[in-house]
Structures are given as C-alpha cells and as structure tokens.
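Before surveying the methods themselves, let us examine one representative protein, written as a sequence plus integers encoding its fold.
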Amino acid sequence: MWILILLFGLSCLVIGWTCFGYYLFLRFTGLVGRREAEPLEIDRLPMVSVVVPCYNERGQIAEKYRDLREQDYPSDLMEIVFADGGSGDDTVERLEEACGEDSGVRIVRCPEKGKINQLNHALPELRGSIVVNTDVDGRMEPTVISSLVREFYRTNGVGVVGAFVYPPDALDVDRCYWAGQNRGRLLESDVCTSSIVIAVCYAFRRSLIEQFPPDVVADDIYVAFEANTRGLRTVYCRDAVVRELRGPGTLDDFFAHKFRKSNAYLREALRFLYRLPDMPPGWKLAYCTKVAQLLLLPLSGLSFVLLGASLLTLGRYDVVGLGVAFLFILLAATSAAFRCIPLPEGGGGTDFLTMLRCYIYSNLILMATGLSYPFFRQTSSYKRLESPSGEASSEDAGT
C-alpha cells in the first residue's frame, strides 16, 4: 500500500506545482524581491518596421491600415509592410486603394502562403531595428507601438515585448481563459520573463532573428523562447492594449482552437530542449514547468484519479482527503493571488461558475495535448476562425 500512497503523493505534487505552486512562487518572489529598474536613456527613437502578414482579408485590411496610421509613433520612423500570401480575393486591391500614395507603406507579394513563409520573405528587407508583427484582426489603441518600443528601454536586456491582447466579444469561458492566461503572463513578466507573447501583436529586436526556422508553427512562442534562452527578457506590456476581433463562437471552436495553441506551444517548447543546460536559471525553471504542464500533468491527473480510487477502495480516506485538501488550498491561494493582478479595462471579469468551468476545460485541454502529441501535427496555416461579422474565411496566415 505504501507504494500506492507514494505514487499518489507524487501525482499531487506534480499537479500542485504545475497548476498552482509555480504561480504562487512567482507571486511571492515578486512581492519580496522585485526592484524597479532605472529607465535607459536614448538619444533618438528607433526605426520601427511593422509587418502585417495577410491572406484573404478583404473585409478587414483597409481598417487595419487605418489602425496603423492612427498610431502616435512618428511616421518618419515607422515603415509598414503588408506581406500578402497570395490572396485569392481582392485583399491587395482594397489595400492599394486604402493606402493611395502613402510612401511609408509597402505591399509585398510573397511566393508562399503561411505566416512563417510570409514573415521570412519580408524580414530581410526591413529597415527597422525593432520589428512589430501584428495580425489583421488586431485592433490597436493609438499608443500601442510607442508603448511597445518604450518597454525596450525600461531596462537592459529586453529582446521581445508583447502587447496585452484580449477578445472584446467572446464566449464567457473564452474571456475567462484569456484573463487567467494574461494574469499568468503579467506575473511572469513582472518577476522574470514571460514565457509567451501573443501573435496578434508583439515586437522584437531585429538582431534577435534573421529568419524563423521554416517548420515553426507558432511565431509568438518561438520568438519568446529564443529570447529567453539567450538570456534576454520577454515583457508582456500592460500599456499596449490590442483587441482580437476573431475568436471562438461556439464551445467546439473554443476547444479546437485552444487545443491547437496548446499543441503548438508544446512543439515549440520541445524544440529548445537540447538548449536546457545553457538557459538562465529563472527561465530554466519556467521552461521546465511549462513542459511539465503539457507532458507530466496529463499523466499525473490520470494517476491522481486512478490511485485515489484505489486508495478509497482500500479504506485510506485520510490519504485521499489530504491530497484533495492540499490541491484545494493551492487552488484557493492561486485564485486569490491572481485576483490581485490588475488587468487593463476590458481584459477580465467573470463569475465564479465560469471560472470553475474554465479551469476544468483548461486542464482537459492540457491533458488532451499531452496524450495526443505523438499523433497530432499542424503547420502555420490552417482554417481560421470566423470574424465577428460572420464573413467566410479560408486559410489563416498563422496560429
């Protein structure tokens, strides 16, 4: 029986750390050890290159152009490049009409579709020392680009800056999912370095990446991991607020979309496994935790249920009760810690039942990701979600 108790205890510890303990550790570390860094002095604002990968975006492309031209960053220090992946509708024509004689905008016709292919085609010709990558469906507040750039000069060693992204019109469970994920990213960013930025809008130093590896599935995950592994910081910026217009419209879409994102995260994470010995200590802890969430958590969850049931049949209600109480206390503590992390207006706010559903769904997605990983593969192009207007869509330019 002691072997069953030991294995049950180990499963509790894995669940406890990957789901709760990691975030509680970050919260405690941030409270006792965080120091405000002195902003760096800069003589002149840097040149910024904004890249917009697009494919069959006739309904939103003109609005995206206007969105970028309303940014408060100096126009003479910002080049805008639309990288079209061979749209089959009149995306390019509508964009050309919207741009008119705007000399600060280039439309690049890429030979291959797929977000990574389009980015790699555009990158060599960019003039900026900072690259902002943004999707067509991301609506940016006027201060987004200036806020992203400012983060590179708040402290030394910043390699990637992500905008704070949220869906304004989403399912309750999806809004709750975003709120939880965003709080986790902000917590990581405040203490050490964020483990991810969001593909809808992020910026990176041009010197960080010459080209994305062609088999990258999720550029937002890859760029953060590359920076963190090199000892640079990834910052999740509260001041750069972007609304993502496309999102799951049904629960089935929610599960499918989050499963794809979770699978992409694991794929990109395992790409960096061989570089684990050279990772900085803080990022090494975060990296191992994130991989454990996707590989060990599914097995630990199944073990917790099966071993717990076995111990109950043997009359060890005390052991099972202790394990459940341990996880419940950690859940309550983590929820309280997350509620103390402020979000920009519109970025959160859900009731308890929705939070509970979201927590259950999130763990089901993590379990499905880990168990199905050997059998499921994807690329940087797949069927995108419908826009809020219900406009038909074909292939996505990225994950």
